[in-house]
Structures are given as C-alpha cells and as structure tokens.
Amino acid sequence: MQIPQDLIDTAKLKLKSVQSEAEFFQLRAQFLGKKAYVISAFATLKSLDPLAKVAAAKELNILKGSLNKIFEDALVNLQSEDDFTVLDTTLPADPYLVGSIHPITKVSQRVMDYFLPLNYQVFPGDEIETDYYNFEALNFPENHPARQMHDTFYLNSNAQSQHLLRTHTSNSQIHSMLREDLPLYMLSPGRVYRCDSDTTHLPMFTQIEGLVVDQDVTFGDLKGVIINFLEYFFEEKPEIRFRPSYFPFTEPSAEVDIKFGNNGWLEVLGCGMVHPNVLKGCNIDTKTYRGFAFGMGIERLAMLYYGVEDIRDFYSSNLDFLNQFSS
Amino acid sequence: MKVQYAYLKGYLSTDLSQAKLSDVFTEVGFECEVDGAMIDFDITPNRGDALSLRGLQREFDAHQSRTAKRKIPVTKLKFLKDKTVIDKVDQTGCGNYHLAMIKNIESLKNLDSKKQKFLLEAGVPLIHPLVDLGNYVMLELGTPMHIFDLDSLQLPINVLFKSENKTFQAIGGDYKNLEASTLTIQDQKGVQAIAGIIGGEKTAVLKKTTNIAIEAAFFIPHKIVNQARKYGLATDASHRFERGVDPEMQKTALARFIFLLKDIAHFDAIQCFEGESTTLKPKYINLNVQRFNNFSGLTLTSKRIKMLLENLNFDLAAAKKDNLKFKVPSHRFDIDLEEDLYEEILRCYGYDNIPVNSSKSGPIISNREFSNVAQLRSGLVFGGFQELIHIPFVSKKTFDSLNIHSRKPAELLNPINENEPMMRGSLFGSLFNAIYINAKKNYSTIKVFEEGNVFYKNENEFSQESHLSGIIYDHGGLQSWSAKTPIYDFYSLKADVLQLLKTIAVSKLKLIPTTSSKIFNSNSMDIFAGKKKIGIFGEIDLTVTQKMIKNTVFGFELYPEEINSNDTRVQLKPSSKFPSASRDINILISKEIKYSLIKSLLEKGRIKFLKQFILANTFDGAGIPDESISMTLRFIFQSPTKSLTESDINLSMNKAFQILQKSFKAEIRS
User: Fold this and answer.
1) CB atoms within 10 A of CB B423
2) Which residues of B are less than 8 Å from A147 in CB distance?
3) Residue ranges of B 442-481 with Cβ closer than 8 A to chain A
4) What residue of A is the nearest CA neighbor of B341?
5) Nearest residue on chain B to A248, judged by CA atoms?
6) Which tens digits make up the pLDDT trace of A34-58?
7) Each residue of B327-361: pLDDT tens digit?
8) Which chain B residues have a beta carbon less than 8 Å from that of A216?
9) CB < 8 Å to A119, chain B
C-alpha cells in the first residue's frame, strides 16, 4: 500500500492561513474527518496480506497521531491568540519627558554622600551677609585686597553694617560655631559671588564648606578626610598633593592638587587648621579645642568629573547640555 | 611675579632644572608655573617678603637646608640726621625715610645686558639707567626705591598726609586729585610723590640729570593699600608696600644701589640722610614642642624644630625643655602666633610628609534638621522636570514685573552688568528666559524647575527666601503615532503639584482659589499648610510673559522653608476586613457652585460608612440647562465591623442626597 508522505507538510501549510475556529474545524475534517484519507485508508487494509496489513496499519497510525498533534497544537495557538491583540512591541513608547537634576546639584549631593555618613551636619548659610561674617570674623585684615569693590559685590543698604554677597561659604563657619554645641562636624553648601566674569570665571559659583571643631584634631586628621574624600569622589586613587597656601582664617593653610595619569596638577580645594583668632572670636577655648576647615568649588569638581570644558554651560539653561545628565 | 629661570638659577647657585625648581617653590608654598623661559610665581598676599630674588633665595636655602649666610656686596654708607634735608616724617604712615644723594654722575651707561634682560622679562620696562637700577634693586632685595632729580627738589623733604596741593601730576603726566588720607612726599614747592606708589612728573629723572636723591623708605602697609587702587596707580612699588617690605632693608638697598652704580657711571660725593624713625621692636614667639606635635600629628624633637626654623632665619632666643622662644626676622610681617610657626615648620617638613589619619566621624545627630528640598527635587525629576540654575542678577524691569507685593529690591552697588543691578525677587524671570531660549531651539514641550533664594530689602536688612519654582510649556510638541498626546493643562498641573506635595507629607494641605496675583491669572490656587501659605500654582498671566512666550504656560512656586514636614511618621489606621460597596448618583446642579464646597459639605456631612467619594463625570452639553451642570458622584462605603446591607447603603445614600438637595438645590437626574 502506498501511503502519501506529504500529508503532514500540506496540513502544516494549510493551518498557517487559518484565521478562525470555523476554518480550523473545516480543515481538520479534511485531514481527520470520516472521509479523510487517514480514516478511509484503514478500511482498505482488509485487502492486504497479514504482514503488509500490520506494517501499513502501523504507518497509518503514526501518520494519524502526527496529524492529531499538529491540529491540537494549532487549536491551542488559535484559541490563545483570541485572548489578546498581538502588538508590534517595537513601536515607540507613548511620548514622555525625562527630567534630571542639575549637574551642580548632582555633584554637591555626591560630596554630601561622603560626609553625611560621617555625621557631618548640614548647615545652611546666607548669601547676603555682612562684612563682619564674610571678612572680619574670618580674620581678614581691614585692608585685605579681597574686601575691595574689585572682588566683592556690595549692596545698597542703609544699615550700619556693610552688606555684601558672600564671597565664600566660610561665613557658615562663624555662624555654626556661634550657634552649635561642640564638638562640631558641619558641612555647608551654597552659592557665592565674586565680581568676576570671563570664560573661566562666573560671578556666581557653588562651594561646599566643611568644618570640624573637636578635641585633639590634627593636621593628619584633615589630610585623612580630604584624601579619603577625593578617592571616594573620583572613584580612583589620583595622586594628591598638599601645598602650603594662605587663607586668613586658617593656619596653617593648604591647597590640594590632584593629578590623573600624565596630566598636570589640578587644584581642587583649599583647607587648613582653623586660625586661633577665628576660634577665639567664636568664644571657643583654644586650649581644649582645635579645628580644621575645607572649602571646595563644585563647578571645578563637576568639570573634572564630567569633563565639562566651558564653565558657562552650567548656567546657560541649555537643555541640549543639561538633558545629558538624566542618567 | 615672573622671574627669568636662567637668572634665578644663577642667583640661587643651583643646577636644578626649570621644572624641578618650580616644583620646589610650589612645595614650600609659592605656587608657580613654568612659562617659557620664565617661572611665574603666584605669591600669596601674606608673603610680600618673597617678592624678590633675595626672598626666593631665603626660601630656597631653607628648603635645601643651606645654612651658610649669603652676603650682598654693598658700598658702606653713613647716614646723618639733618632737618634741612628731611624735616617732618609722619610716623603713623612712614616707619623710616632715607635719602641718598649722589652728585655729578657722568658717563652713565646702560645696565649690563643680563640685568636688562632680567628686568624686561619680569615685565619691567627700561626707562633710564638710574631708574632701571632702582628697579633692579627692588626686584633683587624687595625694597622699592624712588629716584628724584635732586636739582628740581627744594629741600627739606616732609612726609605728610596733609598737603596744600589739591592736584598732583604723576610721572607719565596724569593729574590726580589728592585726598587727605593719602601720604605724600613734599618738598618746599609742594607734593612731589605719592608715598609708595608713584613719583611726580616735575622731579623725575631726565636724560640730562646728573644729581639725584634716591629715596628708600618703609611705608606702613595698610596706609598704602587703598591708595593705589583709588588713583588707578597699581605699581610694582605699591604692590610691595601694600604687602609689607622689610623695614630693616632700606639702608642696605641704598648701599646696594650705589655699589652697582659704580659699574655703570662715575660720580662724586655721596651723602646719606635719614629722618625720624620708629624703632620696631623685634617680635618673639613661644613654641611648645608637645603642643606642636599634638597639633600636627607628628613627633618632632625640639632639635629638629630648631633646625627647621633657623633655616628660615628664626633664631632661637631661649629654650627651657619643651618651651622654645624664637625671634621673628624683620621681613616676616605675617608671623604673630605660635600657630604661624607651626605652619613654617610644617611647610619646611613638607605637607606631604605628614602622616595621614583615617576619617573621623562626628557625634550621632539625634535631631538632624530635615530639608525637604532634596525630596521635592527628586519628585520633580521623576515627573519629567529638568532642573536649572541661574545667576540671580536681574534687570529692574524683570524685578518689577514679578514683584507682586511691591517689596523693595536688593540692589548691587557694583553690578557686573549695569542692566542687571538687582537681585531676583522671583525665580520665574530666568525660567521664562529658559523657555524662550529653548523654544527657539525647537523644544516644543518643556518642563523645568529651579531651586534657590530670592532677595528683598527690608528696613535695615535684607531677606533671602528659599523658592522652588517650575514651568510647564507645551506647544503640542509630544506627538505620538498612537494619537495619545499628553495633555498639559491646569488639571494636569494640579495633579503634578498634589503628587509632589504628597511625597513630603504636608500636614493640613489646603488649596484655595487665588484671589490676586500679578504673575498668575485667576486659573490658579494658593497652597496652604494649615494657615501658612506654602505656594501657588496655575496659569501664568500672559501679560507677564507675552514678550517672551506666546503660548499659555503653567507654573508653580513653593516656599520650602515654610513647609513643615518634620512630623512625617505615619499614623496608621486599621484597614477593614469587610467588603466595600459603591453607588453612583447623577445630579443636576448650578454651575455657580464650586466643587470644593460640595466636597467639603459631603465630607463633613456625617454620612455613615462613607469611605470615599469621587467625581466620576461631569456633563454640560445637550439636554442640560445652560446654568446647570450634570455631575456623577461615586460613593464608596465600608464598615470596619460588618458587611454592609442594602438598607445600610440606602440610608447613607439618602443622607448624601439630602445634603446635596438642601444645600445646593441639586436634582437627581437618574
């Protein structure tokens, strides 16, 4: 007996174009109904000799089983497809806007992320300040060049004390020492102003001030916290250099430079041991307490961290620039 | 200060390369950079003593532990006091005053080419061999000098603040109006120089000059500092006097000048005079070795400390165990305290050699102050807002247009841009500008926000208030293939604002329609926490933005400092185990009635088992009278103790309808 071998392929091909259950059952009848070959062929077996009969029956059964399986699977597929609409999931999403935190805020937060777990307390500071807190209490001599109109924005005021836009966040050192109990571990972020505007300077920039006043703090402690912070911040171990410098409110004073690979040294922050005149002015007993302070320019850190080349990009409202910080 | 490397190298007698030498000075606190054939020194304002070859040499020798004293070749001079030459010296402004007079100078040659090159490369122009020599000695020893044409002076000289002249002609020809606070050098004809800053045109050295008077003086730094700027005459001399020159160096400087003059000229008599001077007492500072070690974290011996300081010319005056007493050299104006000596020791020891300790923690803070700004910021970013930061200077026009409460501006006396002399009173000005800039760049849907202070002037002080403001601008930009375009309108903004405030748990939050605001039109609401206004949001009035933005924009302004979210611990209520039931009611009600009133009366109406109700639909189209609106209210009921029966629910629904009927004359539609 000759059994057609292409039945399975034909069934598969025809099933592909089936759209509804009605079409399916119609097709199924063609292949597995009473008049279908696999069913009617069983009737013709009688005429065969016993050996051939057994072989042919076996072959027909296998064919019938295969067809049954193909149709069962196709029915499951057909019915499940009826439960949902098949989508082109590669089409675009509904329109959405992505916001992001400003890179300067991001970098400030990154600095805070290091210090807050060390229990540094965030201390807000005023941007409009008096001459006293910005200069005098910080041990700036009366005629210090920084006090000139040349560097400092002054405000039109009828008050006795001279009002100005603070030139650094160091004013927070004084306010926090006068207000808080010791020991003091504080961090004060904020905006500061200088009469400066060119391609590398802006009249406003952002600083974070840090201050520790405690018993037994040493210059070695200051170095430790700064080195550790810089390694945390840059996620690598740059070469770090402490270089003697001068700030009226710290003694000794240092500037800190870092170096990545073969590039030159880059200044990243200023720091030092709090000047005894500053501590005394805040009624702190310098026999028991010592302090260290540091201040860093966030724009500088952000430029290094993100590879920003023009400082003016930060404050130009340019969404092409800012949208890149959404990740 | 720029110094030619080749010259400096010779002066310091060193073989160090330019880069290495630059590193050495940076290490000891004189930040410098290699600039062509020069080393550019950034000398901090406290170290005027280092603004000379001699000053740099001292630092270099200390760093290299060279203890041998260097000698400066000079001509021996004798100084006389003579009132007919130097008469009055006001010692509040002038510590000492010297004149060296040299007569019959002949065959004057230029300085040798090495010195000329050194001067030129340091930025000092060549003027006249005598002036050039004075400048050279200034760069060598740090003591500025001035050279008068002796024949044009009418002695004696007085050094005084007050003068009869009102104007003075400086070298170069400029006339300056003199102020009483300015110290001047006067002869019998009047002012001939502004002390420490510049000489006069009339007594300047000329080609034909053969007789000169060389001035070397110590002017008190803080009497000079404001003067040079005031007259717009910042000179190399004023730069040094402002920072302080060595008060013991004047005679040596004159002697050095005359010694070097011999190389370039013949001359006759030398006569030297000095005026009355203030004798400066040497300063002594005590240093305790143990205290120093506690301060620095080092363990240096007193011997080591003595050596390091002596290298810097601090001589040990007395020693008793750990207590050392040092004499401060006269050129070191900046040293007053024990801590100043610590810095000197550490500088020479090398900051980088100080051992590093691990980071110390502060005490645990139990009542940490909580700022909600960070949380608001992340809420906004999640809502698709981009954060912006702007410089807070604005024009008068911008300030006025956003000044709702007619407050006084905080004005700058010295603005960088004359058109922007005020501190902002609102963040909206810059935000409008940001929309304007970016809309031009084809951004047609923009959500931006800024956090920062706004500033006002009060009676005798200034106020700075924290604001958080945002803007939504939509010019139909977000198109989609699915036609599902997001809608930005008042109600979407209201959702944004409520969602945002929910994240910081504002207690007693209330929204009340705004009655007056210059910035917002009447489609706006004030945000209250109890009785305190914490913000406003709504549609920005077109008159505020019309010049810049043509489409409707929505905005909000929050006052984070006013928002009290300290009590954020949630008070939990038990949740019911019993099923809830919901019923809709469709009413016809006057359009005049605000929804907030309906809501409030229903909430206060003691409707039993009412868990929540929502406004499910409104309709005012066909079939609804003009003055009315149809509302579908959905009530959801639930009991904490039982399953509700149909009659429980009906009773409550009746109660609800009674309230609506009685208070608002509402009609049931279906």
Assistant:
1) 27
2) none
3) 443, 445-448, 452-453, 455, 457, 460-462, 464, 478-481
4) A252
5) B46
6) 888 878 787 777 788 888 888 888 8
7) 999 999 889 999 999 999 999 999 999 999 888 88
8) 294
9) 361-365
Yes or no, beta carbons of A100 and B388 under 8 Å apart: no
Which chain A residues are within 8 Å of B221, Cβ to Cβ? Answer: 143
Q: Which amino acid, residue B159?
A: V
B184 contacts B191 by C-beta, under 8 angstroms: yes
Split at pLDDT 50, 70, 90, the class of B324 is very high
Query: Which of A128, A182, A198, A312 is the best mutation test for B, with the most CBs of B within 10 A?
Result: A128
Q: If pLDDT is split at 50, 70 and 90, which confidence band does A146 have?
A: low
Nearest CA to CA, how far is A16 from chain B (Å)? 29
Domain with CATH 3.30.70.380 in chain B: 581-668
pLDDT of B91-149, one tens digit each?
Answer: 999 999 999 999 999 988 999 999 999 999 999 999 999 999 999 999 999 999 999 99
Residues of chain A contacting B380 with CB distance shorter than 8 Å:
99
Pick the residue of B24, B46, B469, B482 with the most A CBs within 10 A to test the interface with A by mutation.
Answer: B46
Which of residues 349 through 378 in chain B touch A, CB cutoff 8 A?
Answer: 351-352, 354-365, 368-369, 371, 374, 377-378
Tokens read off for A15: 């099933």
Amino acid at A116: L
Q: Around B169, how many Cα atoms within 13 Å sit in the side-chain half-sphere?
A: 6
Q: Which contacts qualify for B58-64: CB closer than 8 Å, 24 or more apart? A: B58/B312, B58/B313, B59/B25, B59/B28, B59/B30, B59/B312, B60/B12, B60/B14, B60/B24, B60/B25, B61/B311, B62/B28, B62/B308, B62/B311, B62/B312, B62/B348, B63/B24, B63/B27, B63/B28, B63/B348, B64/B14
CATH number at B284-353: 3.30.56.10
The domain defined by B581-668 carries CATH number 3.40.1190.20? no
Architecture of domain A103-325: 2-Layer Sandwich (3.30)
CB A258 within 8 A of CB A154: no
CB contact under 8 A, A219 and B229: no
* DSSP classification of residue B197: T
Structure tokens at B350: 């090398």
Choices 3.30.360.10, 3.50.40.10, 1.20.1440.20, 2.60.40.10: CATH for B79-274: 3.50.40.10
Question: B149-184 burial, b for 16+ CB within 10 Å, e for fewer?
Answer: bbebbebbbbbbbebeeeebbbbeeeebebeeebbb
The structural architecture, per CATH, of the domain B373-562 is 2-Layer Sandwich (3.30)
> Phi first, then psi: what are they for B84, rounded to 5°?
-80, -10
pLDDT grade, residue B487 (50/70/90)? Answer: confident
Q: Which of A243, A245, A315 shows the shortest C-beta gap to B390?
A: A315
How confident is the prediction for chain B on average, in pLDDT? 90
Structure confidence at residue B547 as a pLDDT band (50, 70, 90) = confident
A142: closest chain B residue by CA? B222
| Right CATH for B2-63 from 3.30.56.10, 3.10.20.90, 3.30.1130.10, 3.40.1350.10 | 3.30.56.10
Select the residue of A127, A218, A322 nearest B357 (Cβ to Cβ): A218
Classify strands B94-102 and B315-320 as parallel, antiparallel or unpaired: unpaired
CA distance A270 to chain B (A): 13
Pairing of strands B386-388, B445-457: parallel
How far is it, in rounded angstroms, from Cα B315 to Cα A299? 45
Residues 6+ apart with CB under 8 A from A72: none
Enumerate the domain spans of chain A. Answer: 7-81, 103-325
